[in-house]
Amino acid sequence: MLEEALQAPGPRPLPPAVADLLRAEQAPPRLAAHLRQVHDVACDLLDRLADEVPELEVDRTAVTFGAATHDIGKARHPEELTGPGSRHEPTGERVLLSYGVPADLARFAAVHADWDRPDATIEELLVTLADKVWKGRRDPDLEQRVTIAVAAATGREPWDAFLLLDDVLTHLAERADERLAFQAAYPV
Ligand SMILES: [Fe+2]
User: Which intervals hold domain HD (predicted)?
Assistant: First the structure.
């Protein structure tokens, strides 16, 4: 089932190195399906932002890798796939480091639930945003942080950045039901 979750038609495939990490971790198929969805939405989000605000500098590799691995610690804490819990966060970073993933990429696993820090980077905010909007969830506080970051980085007025982001996220949220159904089809 893991191979099916990794390869079934639907969201973009994960980067091959990430798929290999999930195989090595014997990840639950649902985790692989979830990471594909969030990675796919992060790619769409980056594409839209690149079209709409090309002057915004974002480390695309970091965002896509972060989205593709943020919950990898749930392979070792599978109960957190269906229930609350944050043990997967430090575990995920440790797991990635143990496979030789550079610290600046492993970090997303540890901080994806902790975006509300003054020093959160635009890359961290975008991974968290993708992890919400894939299922249609909107978070006004998070979106405000991204709006401010986009406005500051591009010189746009905050209202202009807000409308742009709102439009992009509304569009991405439209396919949430389809994504939830894909993910739910794979067992924990
Ligand atoms: Fe997630």
Answer: 33-133
- State in Å: Cα 32 to ligand 1 middle: 11
The residues, any chain, with a CB within 8 Å of residue 137's CB and separated by 6 or more, are 173
CA–CA dist 4, 179 (Å, integer):
16
Contact residues for 144 (Cβ-Cβ < 8 A; gap 6+): 162
What are 95-123's pLDDT values in tens digits?
999 999 999 999 999 998 888 898 999 99
Residues spanned by the domain of 57: 2-184
CATH number at residue 38: 1.10.3210
Two tokens at 140? 């006004």
Tokens 């396919």 found at: 175
Which amino acid, one-letter code, is at 16?
P
How many angstroms is it from 155 CA to the middle of ligand 1? 31
DSSP percent split of the chain into helix, strand, coil, nearest 5: 70, 0, 30
Residue 17's pLDDT is what? Answer: 96
180, 103, 118: which is closest to 148 by C-alpha?
Answer: 118
- The 3-state DSSP class for residue 161 equals helix
